[in-house]
Amino acid sequence: MTELPQGAAIGILGGGQLGRMLSVAASRLGYRCHIYEPGAAPAGDVALTVTTAPYEDEAALRAFAASVDVITYEFENVPTSALDLLESLKPIRPNRRALAISQDRISEKRFLNDLGLQTAPWAAVNSEVDLRAAADSLGLPAILKTTRLGYDGKGQVKLDDAAEIPAAWASMNNAASVLEGFVAFDREVSVIAARGLDGSVACFDPGENIHRDGILRTTTVPARLSPAQRADAVLVAARILNALDYVGVMGVELFVTAKGLLVNEIAPRVHNSGHWTQQGCTVDQFEQHIRAVAGLPLGDGNRYADVVMENLIGEDVLRVPELLMARDTAVHLYGKGAPRPGRKMGHANRVVRT
Amino acid sequence: MTELPQGAAIGILGGGQLGRMLSVAASRLGYRCHIYEPGAAPAGDVALTVTTAPYEDEAALRAFAASVDVITYEFENVPTSALDLLESLKPIRPNRRALAISQDRISEKRFLNDLGLQTAPWAAVNSEVDLRAAADSLGLPAILKTTRLGYDGKGQVKLDDAAEIPAAWASMNNAASVLEGFVAFDREVSVIAARGLDGSVACFDPGENIHRDGILRTTTVPARLSPAQRADAVLVAARILNALDYVGVMGVELFVTAKGLLVNEIAPRVHNSGHWTQQGCTVDQFEQHIRAVAGLPLGDGNRYADVVMENLIGEDVLRVPELLMARDTAVHLYGKGAPRPGRKMGHANRVVRT
After folding, report:
1. How many C-beta atoms surround the C-beta of residue B337 within 10 A?
2. Where are the beta strands (DSSP E) in B196-281?
3. Could you report the per-residue pLDDT of B267-317, keeping only the tens digit for each?
4. Chain B contacts of A354, Cβ < 8 Å?
5. In a 10 Å sphere around its CB, with 0-12 CB exposed, 13-18 middle and 19+ buried, how is residue B104 labelled?
6. What does R_g of chain A's alpha carbons equal in angstroms?
7. By C-alpha distance, which of B276, B278, B229 is closest to B254?
8. How far is CA B48 from CA A353, B30, B69, B190, in A?
9. Partner of A33 for a Cys bridge, out of A23, A106, A157, B151, CB 3.0 to 4.6 A?
10. In the 8-state DSSP scheme, what is residue B69?
11. Using CB atoms, which residue from B20, B27, B321 is nearest to A20?
12. Long-range contacts of A217-220 (CB under 8 A, 24+ apart)
């Protein structure tokens, strides 16, 4: 296993808050980060270099690759052409297969089902006719989602009644889609799992997630799981990482149901539901990811505190003065400027018990 | 009290590891940092901007001041002329008086004694004759130190015998100096204390320091102090901060003696002996300093873990692979490149108990 030497440069595709916290973690390990981001880059405040260029700019991509020792990413929707070029120049971790699978909901579900893991029942939908057939077979309510580029509740619509089918399909703009059957679940949990370059796996304790309007609001650790469920959750995550020969941190969202754990979604990167690790663990998810990508040994995922992570979305950020006064609460802001509805402005980790 | 708004810029004089960790803390609160550093600047890896220019470059200082909302510093030996110019342009926190006092060992001792605080017995030394008289009056052993620009054991020499006086004085190169009488102390502790723009004071628990060759090696928290000694230590620190109308974090080094606490030295900045707070407290000393400087409420200094902080000096950094494997140890590296003897390369915080 080759370890990245002190002072080496890590390239990060994407310059949002995840890239920002990755760059800070990299600095703790003596590395420097170069951010590549077409738009605004809060990560640039704490990085050595920022390249502001579209993913189609071949010269910018080449210069970026030349300046770094390894490339990672903070979001999964980097265009394939950019990745093809970058991969020919420098190692990309996690690897392309993880990205390709998670970029497409249908590939992801096929991959998971082939591994023997349960998902919500699903059907590919490429027309109104498909949608009608899928609704018949899976039953309603169900959720129609584009197969690509969906996040934070975007590109999806809930179907409660067959009468809504034409409008629902129209709202997809003919994008390849998938209908997901409704799953009665007790709770949603996620496992933040890491796999090192040497194949070792370390998982943080599962957290319990609450969403509102398709956006994560809170993660509470520990999740309410039986010991058997907790062990299952970790095993599911480890199986996914090993199958992908994955290197880095992955977020694995699971539904806890009467019939066991279902995989809702995987994210091949550090994950919002893992922010609690900043206050609950000696090595947080960001450092864990950098350790993996840099070929360093993974840190111990041991949790020393119970934490409630709350996202500060839009005008939630107006509560910051009060949160700064709260004992045992750590505030993390992303430097994004004016709040907009639905925009993640920061998060607060409340340490409940140590 | 005016709070610095989100996205505001904080200027930091000095670009070493303290500036680096201050810049990271500022990012957590949504601020951006501009580093001013004549030499190599590890802080620049995690800052928005770095100005590399001497402290005598008036144009560079003006441009720096124009780009920031408030100015702070990570070390105390910024030349007066630079501070005069900067102060005319933007607020400097902590204020000039704290800097002026701590830049000169004699001013510092006078200030402390005038406050009714004990120091080691001392005498000003400006000649070999002075030194001989001081040695007679204070007794030997004693330590001869330049009044200015000393740190990490530099600019000081121990005197065990009167025969060493000529050589000791010669080694000072005629610099204004001070002879400090030898103090029999049980231990050295330090208090990392903060004072907000609103005058509120918060102290972290005292840590116990071990030095070798004049350089801090370890800080262990909690220090072995009686409850009365702990209370005294915090009161001494608070008295100093209030007397200076101080804003920011200060390191106050104390000797624990049979006759009570003696102040060894004050440092008007975040302090190496406060690095343990990164693993022991929800708000660490770096964030505490930024909160103060930005006019935000101070964080709770409550300690939730026992920590042993160990400096990684020179080739200690070769132990990093092993430290990365150690459960409950957080490694912090400064990105300084090749190790040199006596160079602070990083530190490790071992969480002993939570």
Report:
1. 14
2. 201-203, 207-212, 215-221, 248-257, 260-267
3. 999 999 999 999 999 999 999 999 999 999 999 888 989 999 999 999 999
4. 304-305, 354
5. middle
6. 20
7. B229
8. 36, 12, 14, 32
9. A23
10. S
11. B27
12. A217/A310, A217/A311, A217/A313, A218/A308, A218/A309, A218/A310, A218/A311, A219/A190, A219/A272, A219/A273, A219/A274, A219/A275, A219/A276, A219/A308, A219/A309, A220/A307, A220/A308, A220/A309
Does the global pTM surpass 0.90? yes
Q: Tell me the two tokens of residue A4.
A: 């990245």
Whose CA is closest to A42, among B85, B29, B178? B29
Q: How far is B336 from chain A (nearest CA, A)?
A: 7
ipTM: 0.93
Distance (Å) from the C-alpha of residue A6 to the closest C-alpha of chain B?
6
Q: How far apart are CA A177 and CA A147, in angstroms?
A: 5
What does the block give as tokens for A49?
Answer: 């270099």
Q: Do A305 and B304 touch (CB under 8 A)?
A: yes
* Whether A279 contacts A307, CB under 8 Å: yes
Within a 10 A sphere around the Cβ of B259, how many other Cβ atoms? Answer: 10
Banded pLDDT at B213 (limits 50, 70, 90): confident
Position with higher pLDDT, B15 vs B153: B15
Of B24, B30, B325, the CB nearest to A334: B30
* Helix/strand/coil for B140: coil
Of B27, B31, B48, the CB nearest to A24: B27
Q: B61 is written with which tokens?
A: 């200082």
pLDDT of A11: 98
Nearest-Cα residue of chain B relative to residue A30 = B335
**Which residue carries 């090696």 as its tokens?**
B217
A306 CB-contact burial (10 Å; exposed 0-12 / middle 13-18 / buried 19+): middle
Contacts of B132 (CB under 8 A, 6+ apart): B162, B165
Residue type, B258: A
Token code pair at residue B271: 């302090």
pLDDT digits (tens, 9 = 90+) for B127-177: 999 999 999 999 999 999 999 876 555 678 999 999 999 999 999 988 999
DSSP states along A172-190: TTT--EEEEE----SEEEE
Do the beta carbons of residue B48 and residue B9 sit within 8 Å?
A: yes
CA distances (Å), A112 to each of A185, A200, A203, in order? 19, 21, 19
How far is Cα of residue B236 from the mean position of the Cα atoms in its chain?
16
List of chain A residues whose C-beta atoms are within 8 Å of the C-beta of residue B333: 6, 28-30
How many Cα atoms occupy the beta-carbon half-sphere of B298 within 13 Å?
Answer: 21
Residue-level pLDDT at A5: 93
Q: Which residue has the tokens 């080694």?
A: B171
Q: What pLDDT, in 10s, does the model give residues A320-344?
A: 999 999 989 999 999 998 899 999 9
Report how far apart, in Å, the C-alpha atoms of A216 and of each of A182, A272, A310, A320, B31 are: 19, 8, 9, 18, 25
- Structural tokens at position A44: 């640039």
